[in-house]
Amino acid sequence: MTSPLRRHLSPWSLGLLVTGAIILVPFVIVFSGVFQTGTKWQHIVDTVLPGYIWNTVILAITVSLVSILFAVLPAWLVAAFRFPGSRIFCWALVLPLAIPTYVAAFVYYSVPEMAIPLLIKVRLGLGVDAYLWAEKILRYGVLSIVMGAVLYPYLYLSARASFAEQRSASIEAARTLGRGSTSVFISIALPLARPAIVAGLTLILMEVINDYGAVNFFGVPTLTEGIFRTWFGLGDRVSALRIAAWCMLAVLLLISLERWQRGTRGYSDRAESSSTLAKVPLRGVRAWLATLACVVPLAIGLIIPVVQLLVWAGATYSQVLTGDFLAQMGRTVSLALATAAGVGLLGLVMAYALNLHPHAFNRMLARLAAMGYAAPGAVIAVGVMVGCAALDRWSPSSRLFLSGTVIAIVGAYAIRFFTVAFEPIRAGMTRVGPQLADASRALGKSPTATLWRIELPLLRRVLLAAVMLVFVDILKELPLTMILRPANFDTLATTAFGLAKEGQIYQSAVPSMIIVVLGVAGLLWLSRYSSGPSSGGDG
Amino acid sequence: MPAALVLDQVSRHFAKQAYAAVDGLSLTVEQGEIVSIVGESGSGKSTMLRLIAGLEVPDSGEVWIGGECVASESAWVPVEKRQVGMVFQDGALFPHLKVADNIIYGLNRRARRQRGEERARELLDLVGLDGFGDRYPSELSGGERQRIALARALAPQPQLLLLDEPFSNLDPALRRELREQVCSILRSVHASALMVTHDTEDATSISDRIAIVRAGKFEQVAEPSDVLVTPANLYCAELFGPAVDLNGKICRPVELALSFEKGKAGAVQGVLRRMQSVNGRSRATVEVNGAIWFVDADSEMQCEPGDTVWVVASSEGSLDQ
């Protein structure tokens, strides 16, 4: 018998509280950085910080523009028309998402070099200043196109869903009123899709802020790169914390702007129904132009990189795939798998706990936990590292228990990817509904027994998909891993990046290719479990 | 023997709602008694069931099941320890378990192992579905599902059975048939049961007593015949069919008559809207002060829509239709 107040307290709600708190601790640490001044802060402000901010803003704008070009028009085309390949483009245009920005950067590293003869002409004709400008514009331009070509699918997905939804209502109405399709696109479809477009762009901008590998490789130092340089170059961790705090504030600002513009109308991200409405067939030149509009982003974002990686990997796999490499990969892959399984189980338990105690406070905790995935990896890494160092100082032994250990990096992965597992599992649980759990409880089974015997078997496939997603995310994660990895700890991502930085681009194609293959598999799972029929399973 | 269920001044008020979902309700269900809670959606009847089951925590009041206090200021027994059986609207059968495993799910491990098969057979026999043990819930019809749900709820021999709109998702014909089956099953095992429904036919056909709930409060608790014959108020009467308040007396259409003159004292003036034939009688639709009244009229009466008529209490009509 418990008192009424304690009815709401249970190991489950306590677990929610502890999990939420652990996820939020790094952010508290990072935000504390706003109020601290590191030894070299003034120097950083005077010299490099404006550049970090400027580069971040420029890159945000240019990558957005490229993404809009690559995503919005194809999304409209596949949603409204039929043309050669339109059915394939509809899902294939998502696939570049499987290529991490840094892998795309390795593939296109030589493009600026190919322009050297042109640059020399500029230098001879127009002088050094013009040459420097031209070189910079070329580098920034190529980087923007490369990043846009693998990040645009975020925008494509949200825009396509929005267009597909509109078709049945306003657009067909406009058509019957005699508007041509271009006019409909500009006067109705685009304005209606604006919330979805902004939502997609927000995700892209978050990825731009998060990126470390590509900007580092192309020598465009953004705020994330600034965190690395300040911490490891200048050795000023307090200033690094402060930059991380500003980075995080930028992300929070983006999220709030997106929420604000969405307003109360809310855009729906329902998956495209296999529409029974007839799409308008395009003929002749217009059809081939539509195909071209879809082929270009697909070629730059997927086909060229994959072919290039295959060629390079084919030439070097025998050197790279040594016993040492395989043993190392075996270790990290099993660690990533174990971490992913742990995060998946945690997500399952927490989703169930939230069902048991769905108070406003707990729901808010769940929303805040999503910060782990919204925040740049480097920011989380910095928060975790400072937190671990503080705990190590308190420990009586002189040994470092957390800093630079597997525990720290596994914990950081859990913080970053908790939402990746939690959200699909929670959605799956909502699909199963509360009744089965209620029925099990009424039949005398405890919450634990109910989770084990009812929820787990019914959510088996969703849980598996969630674990798979976290697993792929861990293997391709770069900035957080670079900061927190223990000595001699390499994931596929750090191996690829390390090889590329040493100039062994061809060799780096082997781990890169593995990442891409896993990424494509992950996307196919995702599309199956997010838009597929209810996976609750009957029987 | 203690009562199967005692509710004592139970209240539950959800935040963000103007009035309490359950507002100081008291009710007793005796051993072997079947009581129905009838109310419209949003009347608080489902919340009441969830409070009894332990899926919802009352703000105040006490719940006693089989003589044990399961919810009060100082006591709380969680749902799994209350020994209540629950039958949900669509059965809520576990889709990944075979029918037999669904039925014995509520038994403890030892009972499952020692006499699970036997118990499953007994219950399948009880609900008339012998040989269905190896099927999966997806292979059952709606009516079969509800019968399995009942078998599953009865398997652990609960102190009290709670039925939440158990027939509402079934076709009318199947619904009547299943209602009779469930009623005889419940009687044969002497189950104490509380059923929530919005269908008055469900309630009148299987229960010993009916409790009519509106906005979290009971309007009337009585035997079915009493509810039909002497409704506590117009609301209770209207739940069971058309009824009007004629000078303070609640009248059914059969208790009313039409007249062209004001004649009798207490006649109410109205405008005839239409005449139709219902079950061999002429039923007049009359607009009285903006409300629609139904009156069983004399079929020989010659009148046209738009005529002014008076509604009076008929001399011959009686309430038990």
Structure overview:
The complex is a heterodimer of chains A (539) and B (321). By secondary structure, chain A is mostly helical. Chain A folds into 2 domains: 33-278, MetI-like (MetI-like fold), CATH 1.10.3720.10; 306-530, MetI-like fold (Orthogonal Bundle), CATH 1.10.3720. Chain A is 78% helix and 1% strand. Chain A has helices at residues 11-32, 41-46, 49-80, 86-92, 101-107, 111-114, 116-126, 128-176, 181-210, 213-217, 223-233, 237-262, 284-320, 323-356, 360-369, 371-374, 377-394, 406-432, 435-442, 447-458, 460-476, 479-484, 492-501, 505-531; strands at 81-82, 280-281. Chain A has a two-stranded parallel ribbon with strand order 1-2. Chain A is globular, with a radius of gyration of 25 Å. In chain A, 47% of the residues are buried. Chain B has 321 residues and is α+β, with helices and mostly antiparallel strands. Chain B has 2 domains: 5-235, P-loop containing nucleotide triphosphate hydrolases (Rossmann fold); 242-313, Nucleic acid-binding proteins (OB fold (Dihydrolipoamide Acetyltransferase, E2P), Beta Barrel), CATH 2.40.50. Helix content of chain B is 25%, strand content 31%. Chain B has helices at residues 45-53, 99-103, 109-126, 142-154, 172-188, 200-206, 224-229, 234-239, and strands spanning 5-12, 22-29, 34-38, 60-65, 68-71, 84-87, 160-164, 193-197, 209-214, 217-222, 244-246, 249-251, 256-259, 268-278, 281-288, 291-297, 308-313. In chain B, the strands form 4 sheets. In chain B, strands 6-7-8-3-9-10 form a 6-stranded mixed beta sheet, sandwiched between helices. Chain B has a 5-stranded antiparallel beta sheet with strand order 13-17-14-15-16, with no helix packed on it. In chain B, α5 (172-188) links the parallel β7 (160-164) and β8 (193-197). In chain B, α3 (109-126) crosses α4. The longest helix of chain B is centred in the middle third of the chain and has 18 residues, at 109-126. Chain B is elongated and about 80 Å long. The two termini of chain B are 38 Å apart. The interface between A and B is medium-sized, with 25 and 35 residues.
